[in-house]
Design goal:
Radius of gyration: 20 Å
Distance between the termini: 25 Å
Structural class: alpha/beta
CATH architecture of the largest domain: Alpha-Beta Barrel
Helix content: 40-55%
Low-confidence stretches: 336-346
Oligomer: single chain
Largest sheet: 8 strands, parallel, barrel
CATH topology of the largest domain: TIM Barrel
CATH superfamily of the largest domain: Aldolase class I
Number of strands: 11
Order of helices and strands: EEEHEEHHEHEHHEHEHEHEHHHHHH
Strand order of the largest sheet: 3-4-6-7-8-9-10-11
Shape: globular
CATH class of the largest domain: Alpha Beta
Mean pLDDT: 90
Length: 346
């Protein structure tokens, strides 16, 4: 059993990464139903939350069935981060997570996200401000370092643990790498094997199959794995990994019927939470990922993104079901479309 403070997780939990413009309640719903053990909100600007920015406040929404659930914040000001943690505590999630890993320019330029990797004392101050302002467990997600010349994750892990955080997730790339190249898990393993480290250490980066999940679990000894882009359009990845851990055999890939059922669930939750106009509009970005790999599927995808009512979308999905009934695809590689990159797993 893995403990984050008093939160009890499975022996090897699978975490859904906080992804901007992806990890909303409708997406989290289908991931939870398919085996995600711990999920997070999209990342929230501490300054926006204090200003009562509508988008930031909406990101605080979650449902009881999502527990255990964490809300992730980012920022570069100690007072704003502390105030945000107190606001978050009022909505009663299970934990607060701090983002020290987002590499995108608009975040880094504000001295937040991965920018803090260049200033460890500032990272410590920001973290301590959050820990001291809430009774909730505080966790952190970060990267190996700013660049290859400053891979300081081992020092970072010790310093952050000393502030009182209850778990640490490490993405196996530096900020300068963004999402290029292969994630390096060796430094993550060194953090886990550090005798000073007693908090759970979760690894993140490039896990896209049950086989790789088992290989990395056994090789690097982490306490759990966080998945991001691999779950976009393929929430089955969580239960498939669990099945492989338990049986040593790969689960059957989802049938078209199963894919359409999850698309319908996702769409219904999207409309329920966002309303019929925005719910349908924002669902359009997901169809490509759900239906990727099927031959001549483009014509149906084009229809799906043009329909403006749930009923019309259901009609197209029924045509898809009839066309591809009985055809089962092997799992596709995670999409690196502009949407997936924008949705980056921090």
């Amino acid at each position: 059993m893995v403990l984050i403070g008093k939160i009890s997780l499975t022996d090897f939990p699978l975490l859904l990464a906080p992804m901007e413009d992806v990890s909303d309640p409708p997406f989290r719903y289908v991931c939870k139903k398919n085996g995600a053990d711990l999920m997070y909100s999209e990342f929230i600007s501490s300054e926006g939350l204090i200003r009562d920015a509508i988008k930031s406040r909406q990101k605080l929404d979650f449902f009881e069935y999502e527990r255990p659930f964490g809300i992730q914040i980012f920022g570069g000001d100690e007072e704003a981060m502390a105030m945000s943690a107190r606001i978050i505590e009022a909505v009663n999630p299970d934990l607060v997570d701090i983002n020290f890993g987002c590499p995108v320019k608009k975040v880094v330029c504000k001295g937040a996200g991965a920018a803090v990797l260049k200033d460890i004392p500032a990272m410590v101050r920001l973290t301590k401000a959050v820990v001291d302002s809430t009774s909730l467990p505080v966790t952190v997600k970060t990267r190996l370092g700013w660049d290859d010349q400053s891979r300081n994750i081992e020092e970072v892990a010790e310093r952050l643990q000393d502030t009182g955080i209850k778990a640490l997730t490490v993405h196996g790339r530096t900020r300068s790498q963004l999402y290029k190249g292969e994630a390096d898990w060796e430094p993550i393993a060194r953090v886990k094997n550090n005798p000073r480290i007693t908090i759970p250490i979760f690894g993140n980066g490039d896990i896209d199959s049950p086989e790789k999940a088992m290989e990395y679990r056994n090789r690097y000894g982490v306490d759990g794995i966080m998945l991001g882009r691999a779950a976009i359009g393929y929430p089955w990845i969580f239960n498939e990994i669990k099945h492989f851990f338990k049986t040593g055999r790969l689960a059957e890939p989802p049938t078209m019927d199963q894919r359409i059922e999850v698309i319908r669930q996702h769409l219904e939750r999207s409309v329920e939470w966002k309303g019929p106009v925005l719910g349908i509009l924002e669902m359009r970005r997901h169809y490509t990922n759900y239906l990727k790999g099927y031959p001549n599927i483009k014509e149906f995808r084009n229809q799906l993104v043009q329909k403006n009512s749930v009923e019309e979308i259901y009609q197209v999905l029924e045509q898809v079901r009839m066309r591809y009934e009985g055809l089962i695809l092997e799992k596709q590689e995670p999409s690196l479309s502009s949407f997936a990159l924008e949705a980056c797993s921090y």
